[in-house]
Design brief:
Layout lengths: L12 H16 L35 E3 L6 E3 L12 E6 L4 E8 L10 E5 L8 E5 L1 H4 L23 E5 L15 E5 L11 E6 L2 E6 L11 E3 L6 E3 L1
Antiparallel strand pairs: 1-2, 3-4, 4-6, 5-6, 7-8, 8-10, 9-10, 11-12
Length: 235
Amino acid sequence: MGNEARGDRMSGAVVVLLAAGLVWLGAACGGAVQRPAAQAPAALAPAAGMGEECVVDADCATGMCDRTVPGGYCTRACRASEDCGRRGWCDWDAGSGTGFCMQRCQSQRECRSAEFECFAIPDGGPEEGVCAWNAAERAPAEPNIGAPCRADVECMAPEGLDRYCLMAVDTFGNATRYVGGYCIALGCTADEACGEGARCAREGRMAFCATACEDDSACREGYACHPEQRVCAPR
């Protein structure tokens, strides 16, 4: 997807960090990690269309949910706009050899919310555009360690570190212990690297910035002060 809509979601080792974080942050603040209780299946809702909100791929009629966009974005892989149907345009990246469909629009009113703008299509007509998350207006300008988030693009890391959103919902659609999501920054070596109000927490060889605290009053709802690391962690 275009730069306005696309985040810098990492994979591999960072996914391990997320899994380890669920154990470390959860266990340190109140015992073993509690898995979500099984719930009866809800009535099936119509699958979401191109550009609509999603959590998992199954939510989308297009078959793919891009979670790098806040709230998710229903899309599919493509090589040409013909692959995207009447409502879609293929954002093809020749350098990487990949492409993803985006929702076509002629005005912002056709996009799903005020968070999304109708951006002009390169080499398109004067009234041709696609709905994309408006990073220029919505992305944070300053580091916001510990802030709520729905995707990496809603987090800002201090210089030299990598932003990451510990999401409230995992890739299977299950609730995690990170209520509202939690912005962290990866790669710190000392507290000073994290900036004011944050501290460099460690788990094994992994290090990341989290909200600094001395007691629970410094933490937002759903979080408590880790007694050893002195950072806000899920209750």
